[in-house]
Structures are given as C-alpha cells and as structure tokens.
Write a structure and sequence with these properties.
It is a single chain. The protein is an alpha+beta fold. Helices cover about 20% and strands about 25% of the residues. The strands form two sheets. Strands 1-2-6 form a three-stranded antiparallel beta sheet. The chain has a three-stranded antiparallel beta sheet with strand order 3-4-5, covered by helices on one side. It contains two helices and six strands; from the N terminus they run E-E-H-H-E-E-E-E. The protein binds 2-acetamido-2-deoxy-1-O-phosphono-alpha-D-glucopyranose and calcium ion (CA). The site of calcium ion has 8 residues, from strand 5.
Amino acid sequence: KVELFPNGRGVGQKVFKSGGFLKTFYEARQVCAQAGGQMPSPRSAAENHALQLLLEAENKGAAFLSMTDFKTKGRFTYPGGKPLVYSNWAPGEPNDENGNEHCVEIFTNGKWNDKPCGAKRLVICEF
Ligand code: GN1
Ligand code: CA
C-alpha cells in the first residue's frame, strides 16, 4: 500500500511511519503534530510488535513513544493524561535515573526504558 511504502508498518487501523532522522522528544512531538499525526502509543502487544519490526528495519536505534510522567513523576500517561493500558518495560525500568527520565524510548527489541527527553532518537509517528 502507498501509505506503508516506504518506512511504514500497519497494525489494525493504525500506521507507524519512520522519519528516518533523529530528534529530541520535544522536536519529534512537533514533527508528528505538523504531519497530522502523533507520537507512537503502542496499546497492545500486536501494536508494540509492529513498531518493533519498523525499528528493526530502520536500523537507527531506539525511538521515543508518546508517553511521559510530566504531570505526576513516576506515573506514565498518554498525552491526554490517561494511565497506560499496556506496557513493555525492560527489566528494572522505569528507574528514573538521576531523577531526570520523564520520556520513554522503545528499543529495537521492543522493550521500553524511561529516558531523558532531551536525548536524540529516531522519529516515528503514529497515524
Ligand atoms: C542508562 O548507563 P546508566 O546505567 O547510567 C540509562 C537509563 C537506563 C539504564 C539501564 C541517561 O543508565 O535510562 O535505565 O541505562 N540512562 C541514560 O541500565 O541513558
Ligand atoms: Ca531508565
């Protein structure tokens, strides 16, 4: 399908697309909004797996997800403030290293890590 070529993965009604470049969380959020999409919010194992397959194909490392604990430290939510319905934290995460990890990255193995929002990661948007 044209929407998925190149650099896209579809899962149910959702499409994840890679920008192919690295940005901070704040820059990536702006890029996705400008494109009419949003940051990725994998809400099931199937969605997380689709995102993982895209990350593996891109071969540019981890990407930021949409979720943060900006509002209440230690409690990660979607951008609208609702709590997570699905998570896939790596062992020992989230650990809020140095009290400065309020964003979430997804590794190429599909596992999640809380991470400083100013790090540069592969931009993937959800549509
Ligand atoms: C990284 O390398 P270390 O232990 O300082 C990472 C954390 C992870 C941790 C996992 C700034 O911290 O988010 O939880 O690895 N910190 C940064 O062992 O990348
Ligand atoms: Ca961490």
